[in-house]
Structure formats: C-alpha cells, structure tokens
Write a structure and sequence with these properties.
- The structure is a single chain.
- The protein is of the alpha+beta class and 136 residues long.
- It has one domain (3-134): 6-pyruvoyl tetrahydropterin synthase/QueD (Tetrahydropterin Synthase, Chain A), CATH 3.30.479.
- 29% of the residues lie in helices and 30% in strands.
- The chain has 4 helices and 5 strands, in the order βαβαβααββ.
- The chain has helices at 25-32, 65-80, 85-88, 99-110; strands at 3-16, 41-54, 83-84, 119-125, 131-134.
- It has a 5-stranded mixed β-sheet with strand order 3-1-2-4-5.
- Bound molecules: nickel (II) ion (NI).
- Nickel (II) ion binds next to strand 2.
Amino acid sequence: MKRVSVFRKEHFNAAHRLHNENLSDAENAALFGRCNYPNYHGHNYDLIVQVTGEIDPVSGYVMDMKVLSDLIKEKVTEEFDHRNLNLDIEEFRTLIPTAENIAIVIYDRLRPHIDNSKDLKIRLYETERNYVEYPA
Ligand code: NI
C-alpha cells in the first residue's frame, strides 16, 4: 500500500529565555549569549506538522486536514501563541525551551491524538534559517 505524507503549517509568536538553573549566571551567559538575557525575547515560530500513512479508501485522505488543523490549534498554538514559554507552559518549568525541546513537547502533545498507524514528524522554524525536526 502506498504511503503519503500530508503537512499542515501553523504559526505562533512566543517569548522565551534559554537558562539552565544548574549553571552560574556567567556560565549561562557564556553558553546561551543573547538568548540568556533575563528579560526574555520573542520569536515568530513556524510549525510544520507532517503525518505519514496509508490513504483511507473511503475518504481518499491520509488524514482530514481540518481535524489535524483543529488538533494543532487546540493542543499547541492556542496555548503557545503570545505566551512566555518559560512562565506559561507547564512543560518548560523544568525544560529549557530551545527549538529542540519545543518540537519534542509539540510531538508529545499531538501523538496521543493521531492514529497509531500513522507516523508523526514535527518541523519547527525558530527563524527563517534555523529549524529543527523531531523525530530525527
Ligand atoms: Ni530565542
């Protein structure tokens, strides 16, 4: 059976600060540079969610894109958009909100709601030039 990937692109703006509580202020500044500034900074994140699987013979879809879009909004963008990731999002109380970790959090929020027969992949652009993918 042929497998096809479908992609949904979404967007959110959010603030964050890269800071490791276990390091000194000087070590944090050396490690994270401007990303460690104490008063946070923002990014315009572009999120691309990829779902791969076989085509449903009844609908002709891999996944209904309206369902996927609503799911991303409910589980991710409605909560993340215009927020401070460090302060407002539970997962980042104990996890540094790098693009890598944000991608994993997004994956973990969506995975339980997408059929197990389908593969899920997250691509997150933190800038136009920097992006991450999870799973690798
Ligand atoms: Ni940043």
